[in-house]
């Protein structure tokens, strides 16, 4: 205690000697204190902020402790010293006015600059003049200023140019990391995107309009983060092929023609309208009120980008169509007998209209009995059947209008004498035919066996049996040696309509077979 005070009273002179002694003493006897550690709070200090060098495990029995700057303990490096006995704080040559020493050993340094960065030593002297030391280090970083993005090409052209963006940080580049984002999404290297100079430079190869941005460059060091103002590229592109809206191409007379043209382009395109290839207006919109059919024609939108010098056009054909007038549906007789034919005629004034036939208000399903002619304006049903009875209409349409004719109700009278072949009648015919074949076969066999008496002829006859059902037609057998021998017959038979179809199956007598000719070659 006394020594320490005495020494302090003597001033700065004996420091070097004492220090030598101290280190010798320290090496002789290990410190009785626990392991002293010092922590810089924070370890990375932003310029102009305070740092506290916090001493842990300092024993209370120390006589004094002193802080030194730099890596060596020397008189010139002493910042400040605290003497426990007197509660006295003494400043040394390295004291800058910003340091405060606490009785617990900790040192506060206020408003640090980069110059304060480095190693600090705490030298502790106990009551027996034994000295120990501990060191600590901290780093001072500048607070980052707002960075600025610069481009090496202010008007790059899409598909032609590459652009380099550089993040200017205006701060000591030490330990700065750069982070780029576009439209809020962080960017990393890709096909057309390269980073260089430690990510300070972003290069966009072969820019497209989608590279416009905005870009933000974020700079970081251990103590601060800053962002540039958003930066957008003025990418020159287009014009693209213009689009004319609305898309309608058919209009009524008397309506207004109101067309608008749009083409993506930077700088914005200049717009021109041509009607039937003649210049009409230099505007993006085209308005013609109360149009007539004379306004039909080709409408061309011409766009030009004054910087790229490129031109594009889109042509739209506008047709002004008179609305259709109501068509008239005609028929000679609305009442027809079944199996008769009927012809419905759709009478219209307008050429070029599309015709659709309606049956009971639904689109008519055409059957093979129906035929359309004269651009679908005539519907013929032949033969007409009971299921064809109903309401008929014709509908005409063009792109601007639809008209439906009057409705015609067709009645189909069922006439039993004209009725189709009923099941009974068909059965009668079949039975008659079979009977006829049997009869002919018998007759032919009789004639043939009478003439030649052959044994193999039965096969020939059998082969020719089908011919008997072919009314008035020669058989199609072209086997020459048989034709010579074989007689064939031409037969007529009439299947008479039974008066009552249901009685037919049991009445083979209704079939009369007439043997008309027997020919022999
Ligand atoms: C204090 O010293 C003790 C004993 O040496 C040690 O266990 C402890 O970790 C030290 N504390 C700090 C904060 O260094
Ligand atoms: C030193 O200061 C502390 C607290 O401020 C006090 O308790 C102590 O008595 C003082 N010692 C002397 C010698 O003045
Ligand atoms: C030492 O004292 C200072 C100032 O009172 C305080 O901020 C710090 O936490 C103390 N250090 C320890 C290790 O107690
Ligand atoms: C950023 O850079 C541009 C061009 O180099 C310059 O005009 C502008 O003043 C800079 N902005 C700042 C904040 O330094
Ligand atoms: C640039 O991109 C355009 C299309 O975006 C492509 O046609 C052209 O070939 C590209 N040029 C180069 C050098 O990659
Ligand atoms: C800008 O930088 C890119 C990439 O380095 C380069 O290809 C391009 O030619 C530069 N543009 C100008 C106008 O210097
Ligand atoms: C550059 O940025 C990429 C992410 O885009 C990152 O992975 C890389 O570590 C950065 N390089 C440097 C030197 O900061
Ligand atoms: C731009 O992005 C849009 C939508 O992602 C894409 O459809 C278009 O093709 C891109 N244009 C170019 C020139 O890359
Ligand atoms: C539209 O034009 C027709 C003749 O072309 C004319 O009779 C009619 O009054 C015009 N309507 C308007 C609203 O101008
Ligand atoms: C585009 O049109 C302008 C007139 O508007 C003309 O002077 C120019 O030569 C055209 N450019 C091309 C590439 O056709
Ligand atoms: C527009 O009309 C012109 C001339 O009448 C014709 O050559 C061209 O094919 C038409 N274009 C379209 C899309 O109909
Ligand atoms: C229509 O046809 C029916 C049946 O064929 C017939 O009775 C009627 O007289 C015909 N009416 C006219 C007006 O021809």
Notes on the protein architecture:
The chain has 521 residues and is mainly beta. The chain folds into five domains: 5-141, Immunoglobulins (Immunoglobulin-like, Sandwich), CATH 2.60.40; 148-227, Immunoglobulins (Immunoglobulin-like), CATH 2.60.40; 243-320, Immunoglobulins (Immunoglobulin-like); 328-413, Immunoglobulin-like (Sandwich); 450-465 and 484-496 and 509-521, no CATH class. Helices cover 13% and strands 39% of the residues. It is built from five helices and 38 strands. It has a six-stranded mixed beta sheet with strand order 2-10-9-4-5-6. The N and C termini lie far apart (163 Å). The relative contact order is 0.07. The model is unreliable at 1-33, 422-430 and 453-521 (pLDDT under 50). Bound molecules: 2-acetamido-2-deoxy-beta-D-glucopyranose (12 copies). One 2-acetamido-2-deoxy-beta-D-glucopyranose binds at residues 152-153, 162-164, 203.
Please describe the topology of this protein:
Elements (H helix, E strand, L loop, with lengths): L1 H9 L4 H14 L8 E5 L2 E3 L4 E6 L5 E8 L8 E6 L4 E4 L7 E3 L5 E3 L8 E9 L4 E11 L6 E4 L11 E6 L8 E6 L2 E2 L6 E4 L4 E4 L10 E7 L2 E4 L15 E3 L4 E2 L5 E6 L7 E6 L2 E4 L3 E4 L8 E8 L6 E10 L7 E4 L3 E3 L4 E6 L6 E6 L2 E2 L6 E4 L4 E4 L8 E9 L2 E4 L3 E6 L9 H29 L5 H8 L15 H6 L1 E9 L15 E10 L1
Parallel strand pairs: 2-10, 20-26, 28-36
Antiparallel strand pairs: 1-3, 3-8, 4-5, 4-9, 5-6, 7-8, 9-10, 11-12, 12-16, 13-14, 13-17, 15-16, 17-18, 19-21, 21-24, 22-23, 22-25, 25-26, 27-29, 29-33, 30-31, 30-34, 32-33, 34-35, 34-36, 37-38
Helix pairs in contact: 3-4
The site of one 2-acetamido-2-deoxy-beta-D-glucopyranose has 5 residues, from loops.
